[in-house]
Amino acid sequence: MNYQNSLLNKSSLNEAIAHAFQQRRATTLALFEGIEETTFCCQVHPDFSPVGWHLGHIAYTESLWLLERSAGLRCIFPQYRKLFAADGLPKNERVQLPTLEEIRYYLCVVREEVLNYLKVADVEQEERLLRFLLQHESQHNETITFILELLRSQEAKVRNQESGERSQELIFPNHPSEMIQIPAGEFEIGNNSIDALDNEQPVHRIHLETYWIDKYPVTCGQYRAFIEAGGYQNSCWWLPSGWEWLQTESVVQPLYWCYDPAWHHHPVCGVSWYEAEAYSRFVGKRLPTEAEWEKAVSWDANANRRRIYPWGDEKPTPKHCNFSIPHQDLASPQIGKTTAVDAYPAGQSAYGLYDALGNVWEWTASWFDRYSGFQSYPYVGYSQVYFDQQHRVLKGGSWATCPWSLRSSFRNWYHPTVRQLFAGFRCASNHSL
């Protein structure tokens, strides 16, 4: 299945869009197979709504944009408007939810009306909105996966503590911290395609001086050295704001860290921006800027052009990187966890970076902000409200990222204190080390 541009392989754009929507929905519903009611309504983390809310929000958003605003129909379920709107209720008040079956019915009714509308809609005219909604559902799939993984991690930690289990200590050599030189010069950053979200646009050229960037993301084995060297107890590695956060939160290791030798060469994850920045100082490096990351990942200097993906313009496949395979693509089994940072040689960038898409999101040094010429879409609050110099950019996607949102130009953003299970990083430097 050619994911993002599979629409071009269909004789009818309307039918192709409908097929993509159905495939996306099958993946969404698969996340809830066998889920318990308590898990469905539980707020696992104060920064995130219950998984059940995300399911209802997907239906609400599809109804709002396609049925009400595009088709001009009345709201089918007005009783859900306040509950499932992004600005309706605070996250901690979203635990009083309808049952899973009621929300599945909500999704089903809305989807039937959407499919009827797509039969007569000018899909070519609305293609950008439709692709936005596909990515919207994909992004909530990733959030749902994160919340469920967070819950499993909490439960596993409790079990290990109760049983007194310890992983067998084995000695592994650290993965080499090889760095790649990126020569000075101009390159193109951003994306003007119909898939691109508003904050990725417009494409523009930037000049960067020569810098070096890690060939691989930082691994669990490498990060373990920081922990064992007292990295969480020594203020010299931390920004003042990071050290203040560390003391307030009493953090001593990544989120639900439990070192296992089997994960030695896997990327470290569950770290905040402050932790990533402190580790970078510890090894005499820094975090790359967003522009540095994107140039190293997407720019083909020999061809003097920007690539959609590190390896070129071929759609993501399981040979390229570790990402979320659509539920109906049975030929490619879901990995459902991180993989070693050197597991995908076919996914290297033109400069030779490994593991730049999928596996874990990577923190950058940059604040999330608009590009010159930015125009909000489909509404002002989607990106613009976060241009507040309070959110750092993450790049690259994770093992739970769906192919609709997997590309070098995609921009994620979090507050620097957020410790996201899917978030890791790689380092950069102004000089060779």
Tell me what the structure shows.
By secondary structure, the protein is α+β, with helices and mostly antiparallel strands. The chain folds into two domains: about 5-165, Four Helix Bundle (Hemerythrin (Met), subunit A) (Up-down Bundle), CATH 1.20.120; about 180-430, paralog of FGE (formylglycine-generating enzyme) (Alpha-Beta Complex), CATH 3.90.1580. It contains ten helices and eleven strands. It has helices at about 15-30, 35-40, 50-70, 80-85, 100-120, 125-165, 220-230, 240-250, 275-280, 290-300; strands spanning about 180, 185-190, 205-210, 210-215, 300, 305, 360-365, 390-395, 410-415, 425, 430. The strands form four sheets. A four-stranded mixed beta sheet has the order 9-8-7-10. A three-stranded antiparallel beta sheet has the order 1-4-11, with helices on one face. The protein has a two-stranded antiparallel sheet with strand order 2-3. α1 runs parallel beside α6, α3 (about 50-70) runs parallel beside α5 (about 100-120) and α3 (about 50-70) runs antiparallel to α6 (about 125-165). The longest helix is centred in the middle third of the chain and has 37 residues, at about 125-165. The protein is globular and about 60 Å long. It starts with 12 loop residues before the first helix and ends with a strand.
CATH superfamily of the largest domain: paralog of FGE (formylglycine-generating enzyme)
Approximate strand percentage: 5-15%
Our measurement of the CA-to-CA distance between the termini, rounded to an integer number of angstroms, reads 43 Å
> What strand order characterises the main sheet?
9-8-7-10
Question: Biggest sheet: strands, sense, closure?
Answer: 4 strands, mixed
Structural class: alpha+beta
- Unreliable stretches (pLDDT < 50, length at least 5) are 1-11, 164-175
Which H/E pattern describes the elements? Answer: HHHHHHEEEEHHHHEEEEEEE
Overall spatial form:
globular
